[in-house]
Write the structure tokens for this entry.
Amino acid sequence: MVDYEIAALVRYAVDKKLIEPADRTWAVNQILTVLELDSFEEPKEAPAGMELETILARILDSAAARGLIDNDVTSRDLLDTKLMGVLTPRPSWVIDHFRRLEAADRRAATDWYYAFSQDTDYIRRYRIAKDVKWVTETEYGDLDITINLSKPEKDPRAIAAARSAPQGGYPKCQLCKANEGYAGRINHPARGNHRVIPVTIDGNEWFLQYSPYVYYNEHCIVFNGRHTPMKIDRSAFRKLLDFVIQYPHYFVGSNADLPIVGGSILSHDHFQGGRYTFAMERAPVEREVRFSGFENVSAGIVHWPLSVLRLRCADDTRLVDLAEKILTAWRSYTDEAAFVYAETDGEPHNTITPIARMRNGQYELDLVLRNNITTPEHPMGVYHPHAELHHIKKENIGLIEVMGLAVLPARLKGELSRLGKMLVSGGDPAADEELAKHAPWASELRERYAFTAENVGGILRDEVGRVFARVLEHAGVFKCDAQGREAFLRFAASVK
């Protein structure tokens, strides 16, 4: 029986102020209902000090042993979220509490909401802790590197079940408000413990939440109340700055609105933000640029591998006006000498990844110029990680990567560990099916380093970081050399 673990879970909920002590009996009975149990005996010893991960793991083990669930990650996640959903306050209470805190201090409100999202296990602290993180020093500053282990890989059985499961149209996507409290299914994550905060942005209903995978501190998502596609336009700039006006301790940015250079979800208008300083924000302006009619707006080219124009002004409306002008010019801009084409065969290529923040009492917009053209040599995108870097990073370069944080696949943890041992022992990665993709890189590293068991780990981490810097260079439309800067200035001069 799991009476002790049930009691421990209820005590956890009381300690975290998810429920009141008077709710204890009710909470026990709700948990019994979820677990399809009909009796409970109070433990002789009061449970104390047990970690939430341990409590839930033991309850799930028992449920699997009884045949209530299959013992795979997806089934376990569906059940433990249902359990935590029982203990999570209703949306109305969460919103009311947030508003009362917000009335006194907006930062205090987001501090509470972030902790709350962890306490309810919507953000699984114990999974986030498994992510491998380090910093690599490059000519562009200190880049953040993360091997993402917090998003669990699905069991092959779960993948097969998801493939054969009916494709429901509710919720329409994983960002829709309809996810709040949704029980989930084999092909859609459970969100029973998910609560969102209404936010009015540019006169429209949006919602604030946190990412369940928190790639950086207070990694939030701001999403449109309507399921409408992402679009970078004047309204997008206006909405970004409107959010920053309300939450000046957060930055906020948008993925681009074209495939390849956009993020993973283009079907639902949303932004990502948080309380974190990325390398791109720390990067200096290396050359000032003047735009006619906007003499009160400070503008310049940022020393960054991607092509970034930084705009700064105390007047947010002027920032929006200039950003719109730059976007309009970029959408139609072609420079064959720089291999920039606005469109080919009717397909548009130019768009912008925008990021907004407050800095020293002024509004700041970083406009990252993006282009998604493909060629036979680079079928995944000319301004996308090229094939020789795919052994490390093959996925799209979205907002988070643009700002200088690499989110690398979980496979790399094991691959780098095995590759390190092989570099020390003198083995041949090309002879290993899994490591063969790293063989050219390994050969190049062997020419520069004498590997030992003590230094190989640090060297590989630094070199992965340098690969990521090259990834960002590939994604840059105008390169960080004399020819690239000349091309960048030609575009800036075209903005009228």
Remarks:
- The longest helix spans residues 456-475.
- The chain has 16 helices and 15 strands.
- Residues 133-407+480-494 form one domain.
- The chain has a mean pLDDT of 95.
